[in-house]
Amino acid sequence: MLDKLWLIPLIPFAGFLLNGLFGKKIGNGLVTAVALAASGLTAMVSTLAVFQYLGAYPDHGRHLDRVYNWFTAGGIGTDVAFQLDPLSIVMLMVVTWVGFLIHLYSVGYMGEEDGYGRYFAYLNLFLSAMLILVLGSSYLFIFVGWEGVGLCSYLLIGFYYDRDYAAAAGKKAFIVNRIGDFGFLIAMFLMFNYAGTVDFAGVQSMAARGQLTPTVITAICLLLFLGACGKSAQIPLYIWLPDAMAGPTPVSALIHAATMVTAGVYMLVRSNLLYRMSPSAMMVVALIGGLTALFSATIAVAQNDIKKVLAYSTVSQLGFMFIGVGVGAFTSGIFHLVTHAFFKACLFLGAGSVIHAMGGEQDMRKMGGLRKKIPTTFWTFTVATIAISGFPPFAGFFSKDEILASAFATPYFPAVGKLVWLMGTVAAFFTAFYMFRLWYLTFTGDFRGTHEQEHHLHESPWTMTFPLQVLAVLSIIGGFIGLPQMLHTPVTNLLEHWMQPVIPEIEGIGKLIEIPVGTEATVALVSTLLAALAWYLARQRYRGRGLAADLATEQSHPGLVHTLENKYYVDEGYDATVVTPLRQLSIFSWKVIDGIIDGTLGLVGYTVAAIGDLLRFFQTGNVRNYALMLFGAVVILMWVFA
Amino acid sequence: MTGLLTVVLFLPIAGAILLVFLPKDIPGPIKGGGLLVSLLTFLASLAIVGRFHDGIGGFQLVESHAWIPQWGINYTVGVYGISLWLVLLTTLLTPVVILASWNSIHKHPKEYVISMLVMESAMIGAFLAMDLVLFYVFFELMLLPMYLIIGVWGGKNRIYAAIKFFLFTIAGSLLMLLGIIYLGFQQVHLTAGGVPTFEITQLYGLSLPPHIQTILFFAFALAFAIKVPLFPLHTWLPDAHVEAPTGGSIILAGVMLKMGTYGFLRFVLPFFPDASIHYAPLLICLSVIGIIYGALVAWVQPDMKKLVAYSSVSHLGFCVMGIFAINQASIEGSILQMVNHGLSTGALFLLVGVVYERRHTRMLADYGGIARTMPVYTVFFVIAMLSSVGLPGLNGFVGEFLILAGSFQTHPGYATVAAIGVILAAIYLLWLIQAVFFGPITKDENRSIPDIAWNEIAAVVPLIIMIVWIGIHPNTFLRRMEPSVQQLLATVRGEQPEKVMTASLAAAATRSPVAQTLLSVRSGARMRGRQGLSVGVQGPKGAQTEVSVLRVTR
Questions:
Q1: With 0-12 CB in 10 A as exposed, 13-18 as middle and 19+ as buried, what is A142?
Q2: Interface check A168 vs B, CB under 8 A
């Protein structure tokens, strides 16, 4: 398998081709079979490859499988080559197995939708692109996956293409991502200029040998981070992700929570050596992460659409991952990426199950008391809620606290580190609050929807509940891959040991974080207490009271509530400051500048023509005659002299 | 004995002459005949690729005959890495155009097909000509059928657009003609009897004084800049496209515009190297303005064809920037991007024509939601759009990346601004897709548009295949242009051409016995004290011998 890593992305690509070309003709049954076979086979083949890797590389080094040279001209280009190393393996396992579960879930969720074949074709294509992204061995080659997942995101957000808002949301996602990709591209140009390569190992070794100046490294890091801000929805480019909820819910779970949006985190961890050599770039990452985590957590508090709450929650949680990466705790970023994939996928799929039961309704104000009607969804959702809120010993607790403790203890910029810790901690408080608000409003109290909806309420089929159950279990135990030092268990910090070859300790290059046990315990205690407080406040406000508390707040603080509900009017701000002026400039260019050019050239032409008229040479003035003369002259010349 | 290049060059015109004798009222056989001729030409052009040796930078398959010996004008044709794929693009697009207009041209179908075939020969001739006068003849000959195509088969304002197109292009090329004549007389003193020399390879080595270079540079550059078209000389293009029939637009955007970029590579850079290097920043600056300006203006167009036309201004800006960045990667990227633009924009114009046939409107506002009624059509359009946007895995990305990354090495500031064009491309093309294909259907006429027909699918599929091929394995194309670009750069930088030649041959010799033979022939030529640039030609005679060496060793 190790010499055929290319098979891994190729299998789902074959599924894409089959369902894309023949999906309409072969019927839903075969579409299901092809899609599940493709994603299941991919997961199994990947796992097999991982086992072979473990046998062949006891030191967990980098396995490289070069397929062919994609293109090269004047030293610029790259290979189509796949690599396997501890970081790729973590991503590979999350992407393929969570991917498979969500394929399975989709069978139930999308069963009655139009365009079933198209849906699974896109989903398989996404898997393929995502696998290129996590297995590729150079910045340029993973860019294929990077843009490929963006394309699938565009197609799947706009899956219900005849709805205006879905089409607009897809377009917005693609364009905002392109702004990030601009940074990614320039970063690669810099690499070619100064390192002569875009191979991961090549760039890192050039940097480690001191061949790149600090300015270049910082520039590359910041530009790569711009790319990450697009893909992973960070300030100022996060605006596309909430709109992306226009896509089918399983898509939100797979692409916009568990896998694609974490690609930015993956890329930064992949480039950890560069970042460790540029503390200023790291500080930018940490601050943006902290700001995003806090900012979007406050927005989530005031959203009423169940998916919108989870969307802002995802933006916020991605911010946590960037805090981890930014303060130099690269493993903790990946740790949170993994646990988040479990509990957020579980939450989104759970929300999907709720929406399914409600007949498409997403407004929490019309829900309530669902715990009895959809018990499996209820308990899995509850587990995931506890996990994201950060209560021990659930998965989110360990990963989030490792990030916060690292921020507190970071040696790179101690003061800013404390500030970032503070932002993260407050964000964690809001996280627990908005999640329990969602939980109480949805599952407890009285049903607030229509009679028809109430009558229709039902638990989802097994294809949907089974993935929920698996993910719920993972949300409970997922944290055990990164148990902190202070617990003195025999399996302490498994993930950190595993990741060590990817984040090597190199003399003179940014050291790794040591968290003092005291700090870790204090940070954990503080955030657990805050989470408990948030839960208590949510319980006071929403348990058995439905919307009363929110309505009261809206009465007393309308400005605040509306600002939050409207997401601080950021979209409107971008429209007024960027989109509208740009459009006006374009219209001006077209109507005015083009007109001036045309007029000037016309004048020149007219003058020349007038002079020509004076000369009375070829006086017909008919272009067709000129042309004929020319053609005739050519023919005569050829005939005479040939 | 007629050579392969001559066959490819004259096959379409020969076919056109045969068609003249067919009666007017049998459109089926006329179109069929045209298609057959263009397909045969395409097959013949594949043979050029088959006989083309990678690893050789100079001209290959050279044929030379005296044409007007007393003026030193020869019929000399040859192909090298820079023209190879443009010739193939031409021979690919012509049958595509004839297929695409199968059911859309009702007026004078015979004259239409004849015009297309004459056009094809003229374009191929311009790419292959190694004699400046011969080039000029083909360059101007192109105007004629295109003028007719716009003026006869065009839309409402076709006469205005046709005349504008004609005057713009001919205005630029007249100055170039003066330049050509001047160049021809540069080596009069070297030849017996004072005959001028228009042979390109003889002129590559000229080192003209700087002020002469500057004057000639602008004479040539103006002609090519109008053809490209480079900002601010682009205003003829949207009008020409809007009025031209679909087939005319495909040829115009697909191949004709490349005459401009090709002219820069073939004549401007090697003839006037010092002036080119000196004025490169000016041309790069205009290109970058064109990239951004074209993209922004494309975004606000209400007419699909105008949108695609302005997007061409943006895309061709990338090509010119790559040329004047003067480095290996950017120039290879630029050549590839010329082909890419021909494929993706050709496909876009073709597809716009498909709905125009059905609805007789190209206004974005008249559409909306047609993905529901025309699903297959939508898939093709989206692929063409993604190719134009530069999605990695499809052709556009490779070209753009090489241009930008290469230009970044010499002009990082301009390259960075140009890269914004990549964002803008997504904006205007996704806007087009959303407006036409997505959203609810608001107009009743759109509820029952027939999906894309078989002849249209047959026309677009070859383009899609090439789009994917270049995206996945661009080395097929890059490999064959590499030595020619190396040689061009050596000329521009004033390095000893012989040395580079031998070096690249020596590199190739390790792989191919043919090249080894050539290498020895080459050294022989040098021993005789000849100076020159290409493998192919010293004079007509030398060319013949070397070509035959190639044949023998095959």
A1: buried
A2: yes
